[in-house]
Amino acid sequence: MADAAQDGARRVLVAADKFKGSLTAVQVAERVTAGLRRVVPDVVVEAMPVADGGDGTVAAAVAAGFERHEVRVTGPLGDEVTAAYALRGDTAVVEMAEASGLQRLPEGVFAPLTASTYGSGELLRAALDAGARTIVFGVGGSATTDGGAGMLAALGARFLDAGGEPVAPGGGGLAALASADLSGLDPRLAEVELVLASDVDNPLTGPKGAPAVYGPQKGASPDDVAALDAALAHYAKVLAGTPGAGAKAAEYAEAPGAGAAGGIGYGALLVGARFRAGIEVMLEVLGFAPALERADLVITGEGSLDEQTLHGKAPAGVAAAARAAGKEVVAVCGRLALAPEVLGSAGIRRAYPLTEVEPDVAKCIAEAGPILERVAESIGRDFLR
């Protein structure tokens, strides 16, 4: 980079999230780089794929130099799956979607009442076994609404019905919960820094809770949503009378982030996690600040730039950090649903949607890579010449 700077070459930092269903964050960076270089051959591009805690978080950490570790864990339906976490030194990045995400379900299959986060607990345990002292626990994209009960069970907690038997997996099973025992929780949890990284701040239950807001995305009918909300409220009430949880159980149920990823945020808070905006945590972990310092222009983006983007999604976090450092930011996206003035207030000078090049949305999804390269050529002409 120093040599390039002496030659007067422009330096670009590509810090974009995935285009869901079309391109990974790594592929987005590759395509943008290729397009820029066709127009400005000597441009210096630093790629830093980003994620906000949801699916793609481990991949972003690996792209930044973390080592990928694969383990066999329990999937959301109880079958065995291969999941990965990332490790660098004594810092681990664990993504709950790797074990308990919607992508772990067969196509067209949902299990809103029975899907379990047990495998996410196994992933956390694997990170502890590897010597992690700081664990960034990225949550999002879950197939589950079990309040983190499965995760806690994998870490040593016990959730029993009136007959003293373990309750059935999933949020639906929590309706039969009679008692909880947290005395067997892995003692190493008390010795690590556990960061709950999420882009949502919903409470556990109620109109803005996990079942009501996110249950339908996981196949929950209105009756399922009502059953899950009641079961999670009951779960929190039982925990409020459980040694090791007590008063904190009711407090955490209302806390920001408790409803993240089907309530796994609640389970994480119960074992000492600290809630933080996912993109902020990931930018720190990935080493964004020094990369930002080296850049003349920042390119961020994701599949759809819309109202949700402004509420803790990766492009908004990247743009906020870049604006604070006085750097110009443009965005790439598949679809744009924000007015220029709204983009400007978020710190994004201009957005370049694929649909500007190819109006056919189906073609944009199917041929996202080549179209994105053409979009990047436009950025090169507009900002780097």
TrEMBL record:
Keywords recorded for this protein, A-Z: Kinase, Transferase
SUPFAM superfamilies, alphabetized: Glycerate kinase I
An example molecular function term from Gene Ontology annotations: glycerate kinase activity
Pfam families linked: Gly_kinase (PF02595)
Coiled-coil ranges from the UniProt annotation: none
Homology family: Belongs to the glycerate kinase type-1 family.
Protein name as annotated: Transferase
Source species of the chain: Streptomyces glaucescens
